[in-house]
Each structure stands twice: as structure tokens, then as C-alpha cells.
Amino acid sequence: MTLAPSTNSVDPLLQDIVGPTPGQQLRRRFFGHRGLMIGASVVAVLLVIALLAPVIAPHDPYAQDLLARMKPPVFLGGTWEHILGTDHLGRDYLSRLIYGARVSLLIGFVAALISGTIGTAMGVAAGYFGGRTDAVVTFLINVRLAMPVVLVALAVVAILGGSLQVVIGVLGLLLWDRFAVVMRASTLQVRGREYVSAAQAVGASTPRILLSEIMPNILNNLIVVITLEMAHAILLEATLSFLGLGVQPPTPSWGLMVSEGKNMMLFEPWLVLIPGAVLFVLVLAINLMGDGLRDVTAPENRS
Amino acid sequence: MSQSDTPVLELRNVTKTYSVKQGLLGKSKPLTAISDVSIKLARGEVLGLVGESGCGKSTLANILLGLEAPTSGEVLVDGQTLGGQDRLALARRIQPIFQDPYSSLNPRKNIYDIIALPLRVHGIGDEASRQKSVREILDIVGLPARVMNNYPSQMSGGQRQRVAIARALIMKPEIVICDEPTSALDVSVQSQILNLLNELRQEFGLTYLFISHNLAVIEHLATRVAVMYLGRIVEEASVGGLFDAARHPYTDALLKSVLTPEPELGIPDTHLGMSYPNPIAPPEGCHFHPRCPAASDLCKSKRPEPLFDPNGRIECHLHSP
């Protein structure tokens, strides 16, 4: 068969006025979104602080100094020796805060990673295969939604004992519900598009269709859910630690710091307020980032 | 291309039923999307398939593409049943062109990746030869090679449909299932795409099954026409025969329903009256009788048998011997 050039020609001008690629558009919207930029910057700064904790921290977070207990922070009349004061065992509060960022972010990332993997696999399978798979996954989601996360986490931690690994594991295995729900819905939506039928008609294998046709088109939703669940996991860790069933002392954790400071709350409110405020800022920043990502990636979904 | 008497594509008494659940606890009822459809396509021919929305045209297309299995009956490609053929071998012979070029191209892939997907799936050639094939096919469908790095969102509807055509043709299939390929496009672009399809058919000896509800398009492109109503083929004839002397009252109504650009003629009245019947509970007797202007008592009780004659095929009591 010889391939003769076609007489069908396209307006030559059309090619010179093509718009930006989807990648360029996304980048432009990304940097133009204020909430997203603020959230992402705060998260990035806290991430750098957590990674460089040994370099940045002025003191050893575990070093006790019983002669310098309950020193107030600088802005409440303290000294620059301990910028944010010391706790009831004389440990430097700023250093504990910096090391505490490591615990919070580690739990956030790893728990979101574990639950994201479980939830995405379940949701995509349910949405793509439908039928019995969908019925089973929907049932599992409903079962999971009927369980109160904090109570289950408390029970498991009470049995296995509190440690960083246990907390991460429990949260990772409990927080997949939103991933599954969102990924199932997005997969259902994308599965009906004609490019999926076209790939099927070409004879593409199911893994190829899932990875190269479905996944790239539901990735934006996944990223948004990851950020929300990260914030969720960080808050739950703080809750568990506050209740004494999360990370065990003397590991520095923001929830634990609030818990340890609560006895002195009426006399030295900053003991609770400082870790509480940092926790608030981190979760707010992550949520801003998630919200922004949703705004930025949504218009493309519509076209 | 070898000419032979075996039709390149044949459907024998194909029926497809779905079970539809009514309500949460309701019993599921059968919905017959396609009922006892038999079609033959000779090589190089264009069979137009017309009918209202919901009459089973797209289900038929999905069955031909192997995306759905018929409940009963069989599909034969070159005399061999579809079920016995390898999925990939079938994909090389039959390819689709879909209705909506805004939904048929993956927005996250560039044009090169979209068109080269069939070659990748079938492991044809290496990256360099794929590049060459994509360039060639782009030239054939009338797009400059530059668009390879573009994304679908950067292109117009007509350009996108050309990309979809390029993807369908890159493996040189014998049969192309066109599922309303122009209905999502502007009128001015429609004719470009139709002319392109016509040229490609002559150039590569393709066989088309052309699904459309636009009769003008069918008249322009098809050699034979099959009219579908509620999952059944009620009339089949050559284009000339059908457009000059429609025999089935439904075909007649369809032909009368075409809008003309003449404002004085007004909006055509098809006399079809009531709306399309519920396919879960199709009418007794001839499915068309509640809307048929010439319905008799016989039509209400007995379903007409298909009648084959030199003109084609007809399923109507008015034309029974």
C-alpha cells in the first residue's frame, strides 16, 4: 500500500496559534494561586526544619536541666539561652518543637502513603471492574466508615503499646476510606470516556489501561486527598499522644508536649499554646495546599 | 486486496440483553438492546446504520469492537467467529472512530503518544519506525507533523477528530466502525471529515459501518442503509432505493423529519406522535405500531416476519406477501 499525501489540508495558521501545553497551564495556575503558595511555603519551611533538626536545634531535645525548669520564653521575659523557654524537666522547648516536627511530618507522610496505597488500589479496582468487586469494596468502605477512628486506634494502641511504628501502622490502616471513595468515583467517571474504550478496542491490557489511561486522569484528585489525609493523620497522632497512647515520652511530639503542659496550663499557658499553635499552622498550611491543588487542577477536569 | 464472496463482517441473529434493576430491591428485568440482528458487510462497502437515540446502534458498535459479548448469535469476521479470534488479532482488523473527539483522546497524553498507542500495544516496530509511521499517518489525515507534541486541549474539534482517525488507521485495519463521527463537530468541519473518510476508504479499500442519525451524511457516504428501531433492523436497502422509495413507515417518517434550510417549509412534522417506547416493556406485536400511521389490528397482535427480496430486507405487515 502506498501512502499518498492527502489533499485534505489544515489551515496553516492554526499551528502557530496553539495555546500552552497542559503542563504549562498547570504551572501558571499553580504559581498564581495565593493560598496554594502560602500553604506550600509553610509546609516546605517546616519540612526543611524537620530534615535539618540536628543542625538547627540549639540544644539536645532530651537533655534535662533541673536547675533551669519552666523558664519562660523570650517574649515573656525569658533569656535568649532558651528562646521558647524550658519545660518541667528543663528541656529546651524550641529544640523539642523542632524535633517534634520530624515526628508529625513522618507520621503524616507515611500514614498517608500506606492508606493512599490501600485506598487507591481498592477504589480504582471497584470503579474500573464494577460488579462484584465494586460491591465488596463498597461494603468494606461502609464497614470502615462505621468504625470510629479514635476509638479503634486507642484500642489497638492499648493492646500493642504505644510507639511511633504502631501509631503509623494503625493510622495507615485506618485512613484509607476517603482515598477509596474518591478514587472509586473518579475512576467511574474516567472509565466511561471514549479514550478508555479506544484503548480497549486496540487490545491494550488491563494494567496498561489502568496505568496509562486511567491513573494520569485521576492523579489530581489523589494528590488532594493525600494532603487532606496527611493533615488528618497529624492531628490524630497529636490526639493519641495527648491521651498518652501515641508516641511515648521522652520522644518529642507536639501532642505529647501539649499533654505534658496541660497540668501547668493555668499558670504557664505558653506550655500548651506554643505546640498547639505550631500544630495549627502546619495543619492549616497542609489544608491550604490541598484546597489550592484542588482549585488549580479542577478546570482541566472540566474540559 | 482480494475479492471474495465471504462478507468481511457478518452478524448472525445477534441479540444482546441487559438486566436492569428497578429500584433498590426491585427485581431485575431484561432489557433487549439488540434483538435478532443480521447484517452482512462486503469488502469496500459502506453500510449506514440509522435510528433514533437509544435504538441500540452504539451497543451494536461495541459488540463489533469486541467490547461487549452478544447474549446470543454470532459475529463473523472473514467467515470466522469473533469469539474464537485472538483479541489483538481482532483489534488489527476492526478499529473504531468515536463520536466525541473531546472525550476520545486522553487529555494527559500528547498526540504522538495517542496515535502510537496501537503500535506500542501490538509491539510493532521500534521507537524510530513508530515516529515515521505517525508522521505518515498524520500527513494522510491532513495534519502537519508538528502537532505530534501537542496535547488534545490545544486542538480544535476537527483536528481532534483527524487525530482519532489517524489512531484508528495506523494499524491499517480492514473495517472501521464509525460511531457518529461527525455529530459533535461544527457543520463546516463535518464535510471536511466526511470527505476525508471517503478518500481514505478509496485509498485503503476500507469497509465502514457508519452509524449516524444524520440522514444527509448517510446519503453522502453510504452504499447501503440499515434502519434500526428498538433493537431490530426494520429495513435494509441500497442508498438509492431507500432514499427514493422508503418502504417501512418508520423510514418514511425519518426521511420526512430532516430539517431543511428553507424557513417557509417550517419544522417538519413526522406524525410519529408519541415518544420512543420504553425498551424494558416494548409494545406487543410490531414494535412500531403505536407510532405508525398505517397500523392495523394485525400490527398490534403479531410481529412481522422479515422479508428478503432483491431490494434488501423489510420487516412490516404492509409489505408481507
TrEMBL record, chain A:
GO CC list: plasma membrane
Keywords associated with the record: Cell membrane, Membrane, Transmembrane, Transmembrane helix, Transport
Keyword Transport: yes
CDD domains on file: TM_PBP2
InterPro entries (UniProt xref): BP-dependent_transpt_permease, MetI-like, MetI-like_sf, OppC_N
Protein name (record): ABC transporter permease subunit
ABC transmembrane type-1 domain location: 101-290
Family per record: Belongs to the binding-protein-dependent transport system permease family.
From TrEMBL, chain B:
Domain called ABC transporter: residue spans: 9-255
Membrane topology label: Peripheral membrane protein
One BP annotation, GO: peptide transport
Keywords from the UniProt entry: ATP-binding, Nucleotide-binding, Transport
Name by which UniProt lists this protein: ATP-binding cassette domain-containing protein
UniProt source species: Parasedimentitalea huanghaiensis
Single GO MF descriptor: ATP binding
CDD domains: ABC_NikE_OppD_transporters
Gene Ontology cellular component list: plasma membrane
Keyword Nucleotidyltransferase: no
Family affiliation: Belongs to the ABC transporter superfamily.
InterPro entries: AAA+_ATPase, ABC_transp_ATP-bind, ABC_transporter-like_ATP-bd, ABC_transporter-like_CS, Oligopep_ABC_C, P-loop_NTPase
Annotated localization: Cell inner membrane
